[in-house]
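Translate structure to sequence.
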């Protein structure tokens, strides 16, 4: 079984105390930081850029930073995030004119590469690219805003993506982002996910550790081997 990883999404953090809040959630048991980048063009919201990623590194955040680019065009910003300290950079295939080239740009920058899928985006892109990527990121909400409800049809898509990974024999992480909570994380894991982006479920509380511990307790119920 692949290790289950909790990726707190700082989109739901307190931006007035972002460095402090990020460090706090990592100390509470978060495995990596999920960093949502929105451009008010590809998605209807505007968030943060490379300068904020660099600021977190300067704040002595040493955990992996998982950058999710919801921007179009995408190629021109990849090197900026790599220089700012990104560990993995995921992008949407619709945002790239040449997907294979974008993946190679990420790899050449020294980062792991991920391909992100909106709820209505077909996994057929993986027919040609699965051996080139490190992460498959499945959106379980429509991107653009935090604190949305999990789209239940994503469960089938998670299972399908896991089967593709198994068939490929590639070492690929399967990440799910959107509406993940204590009461549904076990079902999401059972379908095949192993990285869980969790935002408001953690940051809307005062006790981050208690929420993360409860998430992990649910994950302990999972016995399937991927």
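Result:
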């Amino acid at each position: 079984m692949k290790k289950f990883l909790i990726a707190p999404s700082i989109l739901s953090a307190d931006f007035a105390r972002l460095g402090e809040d990020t460090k706090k959630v990592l100390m509470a048991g978060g495995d990596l930081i999920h960093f949502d980048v929105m451009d008010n063009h590809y998605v209807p919201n505007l968030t943060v850029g490379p300068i904020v990623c660099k600021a977190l590194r300067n704040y002595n955040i040493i955990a992996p930073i998982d950058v999710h680019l919801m921007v179009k065009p995408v190629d021109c910003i990849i090197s900026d995030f790599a220089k700012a300290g990104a560990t993995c950079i995921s992008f949407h295939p619709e945002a790239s004119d040449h997907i294979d080239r974008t993946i190679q740009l990420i790899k050449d920058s020294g980062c792991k590469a991920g391909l992100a899928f909106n709820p209505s985006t077909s996994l057929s892109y993986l027919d040609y690219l699965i051996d080139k990527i490190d992460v498959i990121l499945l959106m379980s909400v429509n991107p653009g805003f935090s604190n949305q409800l999990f789209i239940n049809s994503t469960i089938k898509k998670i299972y399908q993506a896991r089967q593709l990974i198994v068939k490929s024999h590639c070492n690929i992480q399967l990440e799910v982002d959107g509406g993940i909570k204590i009461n549904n994380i076990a079902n999401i894991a059972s379908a095949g996910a192993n990285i869980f982006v969790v935002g408001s479920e953690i940051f809307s509380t005062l006790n981050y550790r208690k929420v993360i511990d409860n998430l992990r307790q649910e994950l302990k119920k999972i016995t399937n081997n991927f």
